[in-house]
Amino acid sequence: MSAAMDTIREAAAASVPKPQARHGEVLLAVENVSLRFGGVKAINDVSFDIRKGEVRAIIGPNGAGKTSMLNCINGFYHPQEGRIAYRGVTRARMRPHQAAAAGIARTFQNVALFKGMSTLDNIMTGRTLKMKRGFFWQALRFGPAMTEEIAHRKVVEDIIDFLQIQHIRKLPVGKLPYGLQKRVELGRALAMEPELLLLDEPMAGMNLEEKEDMCRFILDVNQQFGTTIALIEHDMGVVMDLSDRVVVLEYGRKIADGTPDEVKRDQKVIDAYLGVAH
Amino acid sequence: MSDVAVRPSTPLLANAWIKAGLIIAGIAAAALVGARLDPTGTVHKVLVDPFVQMADMPDLFVQTIWEGLVSGVLYALIALGFVLIFKASGVFNFAQGIMVVFAALTLVGLYEKGVPAFLAVILTLGVMFVLAFTIERVVLRPLVNQPDIILFMATFGITYFLIGFGESLFGGNPKQMITEQLWLPRGALEFEVLGGRLMLQKIDIAAAVIASLMIAALALFFQYTRIGRALRAVADSHKAALSVGISLNQIWVIVWFAAGNVALITGIMWGARSDVSFALEIVALKALPVLILGGFTSIPGAIVGGLIIGIGEKLGEFYWGPLIGGGIESWLAYFIALGFLLFRPQGLFGDKIIERI
Amino acid sequence: MFYREAGQFKTSYSADMAVFPIRQDRIGLAVILLIAFVAIPFIGNDFFISSVMIPFLVFSLAAIGLNILTGYTGLISLGTAAFMGVGAYSCYKLTTFFPDVNIIVLVLVSGLFSAAIGVLFGLPSLRIKGFYLAVATLAAQFFLQWAFVRVPWLFNYNASGAIEVPQRTLFDIPVTGASASPETRYFVCLGLVVVLTWFASNLVHGRLGRSWMAVRDMDIAAELMGIKLLNAKLAAFAVSSYFAGVAGAMMIFFWYGTAEAADVFSIRLSFNILFMVIIGGLGSLIGSFFGAAFLAVLPTAMKFGLPALGVPLAGATAEHVTFMLVGALIIIFLIVEPHGLARLWQIGKQKLRTWPFPY
């Protein structure tokens, strides 16, 4: 897996010139965040940051609080203690649609697609925030609303080309195989043109080929579009090769934070997690 | 692998009970102020006068509460049928109301044909069993594993079918329930209490007693028997229950038959107080607020919910109804349930809705 | 073979995104409109138009409204009849206050009152999810039904409690009241239904329609896309109640002529509309028409069809058998095709693509 990833990485790096000073300012800062469900502390005094343009992996054994962490960043959960600052601004009780408006997009572990709609429609819903035409223009359809639809359809078609899902464009997503559903979900998140993309186990349940494809897409998104990515993943090979920095959680606490090499050698992490290679 | 997504505890002011308490306190304060300011104004009439009336004639107040209790027990019985089926099969059986009517009509119809009363009861139970069996075969089995909304709509279909069927078999005219033949008491008890008189119909007392016995029996059955456990398993997941060898078909027949029994008893009790007619089906809709208050899967919840709705309705109609023209019983129950839902979306006893992200 | 799309290439996004992209569909639509506007008034007799076509149009509109709410947005509503009633009474009061304003304009305006009430009773949908929401619409149904009887101002203090529709004209032709001919009323209804269906179709195929379907399928993810749940749900209630309100106004003004509200806008009507939507197909505009056609035609078919087949039926028995049939049909449909007649229609078109070859 590592050798293949190296090849992909080199090819990507060779084809696209590296933008300047990518890993610069802090985009998202999590400071002393604690989250409780009743008596259970899902997240216990965790602090880390995500820099603009990097790929940050969040790893840890089951129950470590990784998804809860993403949910906090997203605005689904509101931590009882600590603060989360996005682009320097702390949000007290941000709702998910405010997070979306601020430029945070997300995929889910158990694919959260709109099963009753086609691939195209699903990705078009990702453009909702960018579409401005009001109720009355939509009721008329011909005219400004149609022009807007077509303009956004072009953007969505670009994403479909990028993810190579042209052949399933009009199919209802409920009928698609799991790997393709995950790809459509990624497309929907990309349609929001996010600044920060949160991926919750994007490669769960995929075979080797699908994983390589997904890795390539994630890398391309990061390098071509400059999107900052926070990634929860269990496949250690993927994590080590894709990410710039890694934060490790266990039972709601942070036990390591650094580059993949540093984390790989950290004894605490090895004890908690890396005993089994994937 | 995902973390459990129960919404975490919220700060003090966002807590529903605190909010409710503050609002009630606010209303009470407004009432006091209103009373001081203007004895003939609307605020006074709405917020103070009814309570004054209650205090002035306590016997009437207690009588109203008793009436509410009685209708509450009957609501609870109907809700009980719903709870049984919902607990065991996850289906909201909209046809429960019509099953009540159908059972009662069958009983009366058989008696009119000359069958002695208690034999008629047994035969009616037999009819309800056949009904349960048919419903399981024809409706539930083909629809296994469909989403709940589809099953709910199917019970609509059953309702309409039974309405047509019942009407063509028994005719649409209201009928008299055979209370005497079933050894149910008639007449009333009168008490001197609180400076006035209180009249309790014996049949109502009987209804309360019978209902309590039945509920206790059902609760024990669910908790302590093997079939009860199987019923709860089926309620959680059809697929999982099948995979451990529980026969869904058997369970469903049992449950619908049990609901049919409850329907028969409800029909007898209800018919004893007023006539047996198809108007009962609308009353069955009232079971929905009861279930919402009590939670769809809780037997004690059905009771408490029924009592709250019954008493709330009667008090509302008697003391506040005249202010806006009367007849508010037709919709008050729904607003009471709505109010509760806004504070506690899962009802008083229901399971908290857990959303997994 | 006739239905093949081969050779129909789309060279622009706008062509691809058309509501009827296949040429045969467009021809079919034209044929249907031709039949509706030309053939039926010429060929149909008065009874057919008054007792089948006009009810069909009224129910279709109400079914489209309910479909938007329940089929597209997933919010269950048992109060459609009450919202129809609000439309009817609003129209009545409006025409009492403004007897000179064109009645069609008033019918369209009365829908707005329904929309407002619909939004009011839809507010709980923010806290309450799924099936529990039925209670809010039931509250609306019973409360409004009570109001129609107990608020005498609504029926102009008429002693009988019913509303009598006054005669109104359009270009000097009577369209309401006793002297309005069935053909005239039919054309007015048809015009209204065609225009409003066009609006509904546009909404459903655009951003708002997608938002509604997103809310129905997974509202958590929808919120993530930036869709404000409040706005989407209230918009659904507003649009749905508007359609129901206009349908109600049409029902009284162009069909019944007079109304005893307690009887007409009862919970039975709410259930009937819901059945139309279920049988026709949730989430499908054409399904609304199928369902309405089905349930509008059924009583008449029973009354006349069965005796024609030699089965004698007294009036009351026909009603009972209708109930049984409706109930049985609902169950059959749910077993055979839970997505209703609309899905059967789609499957039929699929088969048409390859007919007369099997595959």
Describe the structure concisely:
The complex is a heterotrimer of chains A (278), B (357) and C (359). By secondary structure, chain A is an alpha/beta fold.
Rg over alpha carbons of chain B = 23 Å
Number of helices of chain B: 15
The secondary-structure element order of chain B is HHHHHHHEEHHHHHHHH
> Which structural class is indicated by helix and strand composition of chain C?
mainly alpha
Judging from the principal axes of the Cα atoms, what is the shape of chain B?
A: globular
Instruction: Work out the largest interface and the residue count of each chain.
Output: B-C, 47 and 43 residues
What composes the largest sheet of chain B? 2 strands, antiparallel
According to DSSP, the number of beta strands of chain C is 4
Helix content of chain B: 55-70%
Q: First CA to last CA of chain C: what distance? A: 11 Å
Radius of gyration of chain C: 21 Å
Summing up helix and strand content along with how strands pair, one would put the structural category of chain B as mainly alpha
Spans of chain B with pLDDT under 50 lasting ≥5 residues? Answer: 1-14
